[in-house]
Amino acid sequence: MWKWLHPYAKAERAYQLCNTLLPYFVVVSVLCIVVGWVWGLAYAPADYQQKDSYRIIFIHVPSAILSMGAYSSMAIAAIIALVWQLRNAELAVIAIAPVGAAMTAIALITGSAWGKPMWGAWWVWDARLTSELILLFLYLGVLSLFHAFEDKKAGGKAACILAIVGVVNLPIIHFSVEWWNTLHQGGAITKFNTSAIDPSMLWPLLINILGFAALVGTLTLIRLKNEIMQVEQHRPWVRQLVSRG
Amino acid sequence: MNPRRKKRLFTVLAVIFGIGSAVGLTLYALQENINLFYTPSELVNGKGPELEKPTIGQKLRIGGMVVPGSVVRNETSLDVEFQLIDTGPLVTIRYQGILPDLFREGQGIVAQGTLIEPNVIEAFEVLAKHDEEYMPSEVAEAVKGIKHEKPKYNLNSEN
Questions:
Q1: What dotted CATH number matches A18-238?
Q2: Residues on the Cytoplasmic side (chain B) (predicted)?
Q3: Which A residues in the span 123-182 are in contact with B, Cβ-Cβ below 8 Å?
Q4: Residue numbering of the annotated binding site of B for heme
Q5: Which single residue of A8, A161, A176, B124 could bond A128 by disulfide (Cβ 3.0 to 4.6 Å)?
């Protein structure tokens, strides 16, 4: 059943797969982010309460969702790397980590900029904000663990273990606004039954989320290509690729 | 799947399960402490199974809805007094300073301050809490039948 996957364990095939996928991700991310931002920032109506200030939602929510999405992809790659001992999966972990960390940082910074005018504070130690900050530290921890070891193999293993352990934080981030009383409001998109967010604002938001997802994919693929090249730099196929220019 | 991989997979799953339950139990034990604020009924009636009440002079946060019609501003200073409610009892907040833009009667807020009487808090910080509903003002008027306007800052009704 999974036989078709096996060839991609080889670095060269994985590299080619990255090359095939990359253009689609680039097109989707550029298209969706341009459309989503122009629509959201310029054409979507102003909110009844927060007026134009709410528009930062079109950056804040996609980056926050993707910070968690990237983490779960990283953890899945880490499980595969530990159980099946595939080096490509390990490279994928290290390819995603900085991208996810950037998304988390964007979510925290935009959230802070949104919090000041609306709540009246840049930062509050409530459960949602704190757990998202821990997510950033987890990403940074995975990255630094990977680079902390002289032996690449040991570093990769340690980073994978931390990535898997950190998964515990994801449900905490998601449900923090329901389990405890927080200053942060509840989730707007996951409330399907009620119209928490008006369709005229929801559509540009969904487009932006898709665009950010494709952007994370794009950056990860580019980084993965580099990682593969670096590890395989003495192999004939890389030399051929480089000499071809 | 060969036995070695199977064993590793089980180890990984066991680690996730173990850490998950450890963290889960810790959070469950700390539940009351992770809450950002007291609600007015928790403040007055006590909180948790032992109905613990905060003591006078304690620093705390309180979150609730500003009771419509309860906001009283001092005309010569920044002093303001209003009441908070959730389901039952009222709690009075005294504050000196500029209130956030979203502060309105009927709005959820979180105030941080010192308890000076069983149901009076002298706040040094007032934060506005908003909900997860976003809509254009025309829709809000149609759905909720409310026009969201800032409360009048001038209390003299003559001008």
A1: 1.20.120
A2: 1-8
A3: 124-127, 161, 164-165, 167-168, 172, 179-182
A4: 130, 134
A5: A176
Residue B12: closest CA among A63, A81, A125, A241: A81
pLDDT digits (tens, 9 = 90+) for A32-56: 999 999 999 999 998 888 888 899 9
Contacts with A48 from chain B: Cβ below 8 Å: 135-137, 139-141, 148
> B129: which 2 tokens?
């809490």
Is the CB of A50 less than 8 angstroms away from the CB of B16? no
B144 part of a folded domain? no
Contact status, residue B72 vs residue B80, Cβ threshold 8 Å = yes
> Is residue B3 included in any domain, yes or no?
no
CATH number, residue B70: 2.40.50.140
**What's the rounded Cα separation, in Å, for the pair B152 and B113?**
25
Q: Residue B6's CB: how many other CB atoms inside 10 A?
A: 11
Q: What is the domain range of residue B93?
A: 36-128
**DSSP per-residue letters across A110-165:** HHHHHHHHHTS-S----HHHHHHHHHHHHHHHHHHHHHH-SSHHHHHHHHHHHHHH
How far apart (Å, rounded) are the C-alpha atoms in residues B70 and B56? 23
Q: Which pair of structure tokens corresponds to residue A22?
A: 């990359």
Question: Is B93 within 8 Å of B114 (Cβ atoms)?
Answer: no
Domain boundaries of chain A, sorted by first residue: 18-238
Residue ranges of chain B whose pLDDT lies below 50 = 154, 156-159
Asked if residue B73 belongs to a domain, the reply is yes
CA distance B114 to chain A (A): 18
**A7-29 per-position pLDDT tens digit:** 888 889 999 999 999 999 999 99
Structure tokens at A227: 């990682």
**A200: chain B residues, CB-CB within 8 Å:** 136
Does any CB of chain A come closer than 8 Å to the CB of residue B30? no
A165-202: burial string, b at 16+ Cβ within 10 Å, e else: bbbbbbebbbebbebbbbbbbebbeeeeeeebbbeebb
**Does the beta-carbon distance from A196 to B133 stay under 8 Å?**
yes
| Cα-based torsion angle of the residue sequence B22, A158, A215, A186 in order, rounded to the nearest 10 degrees | 10
Burial class (CB in 10 A: 0-12, 13-18, 19+), A208: buried
Q: Which of B12, B101, B102 sits opposite A164 (nearest CB)?
A: B12
